[in-house]
Automatic annotation (TrEMBL):
Residues 74-354 form the G-protein coupled receptors family 1 profile domain. Keywords: Membrane, Receptor, Transmembrane, Transmembrane helix. It comes from Elysia marginata. The lineage of its organism: Eukaryota, Metazoa, Spiralia, Lophotrochozoa, Mollusca. Its main location: membrane. This is Growth hormone secretagogue receptor type 1. The keyword Transmembrane helix applies.
Amino acid sequence: MFTTNPILISTPLMERPNDTLITNKDPQLCTGTCLFEDHHQRLEGIIDEYTKQVILAINYCIVSTAINLGGTVTNIINIVVFIKQGFADRMNISLMGLAISDLGCLLTLQWMNLCFNPLFRFSPKIPFDSLEVQYITGGWPHACFARTTGLITAYITAERCLCIAAPLKVKTILTHKRTTFVIVIIFVLMFGSTAPIYSVNLLGPKFYPGDPPVWNRTLIGLVFTENRDQVEQITFALNNVFGYIAFLLVTIFTSVLVSKLRKNVRWRRDNAKSAISGGKQDVNALRDARVIKMVTSISTIFIVCFFPVTIIFIGIMAVPGLGLVGRYSNMFHVTCSFGFALETINSSVNLFVYLKMSSKFKATFDSVFRKRTLSNATV
């Protein structure tokens, strides 16, 4: 969500054998090792190099990959169900956008996981440096989808809060066209804001010195332009602003929804006797309560999964040497690998929330998948 999570830990600035500090700024010579400090300085941190590599391999190649594969399936199911339901309910428009964004998060992250896999990364058959190539083919697209997920989640929670504050006006304020427009604008804004990255990070052939057969050969890698640092600093800052705004809004609106949900629970408890005795229940109020509960669950999962990344970002500003380079860079990479795993969970579990809390979604899911499965089994 922030610079520390979807982008920086996926940059080409990862260790290769015999890394050294390169100061040449020529765009044809500078590689991902340009910004690294001496290899031995990184070993002074809390986590040694071997431990770091083992944890990264487990988190990226096993944990995140396994969750990712399941999450890809669940989001495809979500998209199919929403298409089947149609978009007469404007909430389906927002949830459809969220499913697409989550699917984009997982697909780009899966490519990044593959590029981190040592069997793939150091294969002599691969004609490119996987860590450098995935920086612009996986890292930045993943960052865009992650921020898009955050902003769509913020919009969904804001819409529910508006339903509480102005229940009679919300349908005229948030029409289907306006909801669609907002979701599309979020996607366009996120990807448009990162477009300058592709003008300063180019792919081209470079010679990689080192021990054969992995290195000491020419591979496709990143070639930087002279103004790369300035452009990336501005783009990082802009994307961090979007990340902060999304996280802050989701937290605020979720707090409001939790408060409303508690009031609904008290209301249902106080009116239980009258309902049993034949009193007419407020069906709309019960439906709204279920929707609020579902949205609150989605946003709470988002907050829990992205909160550690927020702490990491604060730590970078507060602790000297904690970051891509510096004494505690190994700690940075390890903690961010756990952040990726949590982010994968956030993008994978919404299907189970919908099945648990939306009877309409569950009915459509059953009609599309379970009945089809039963008919195939009968045949």
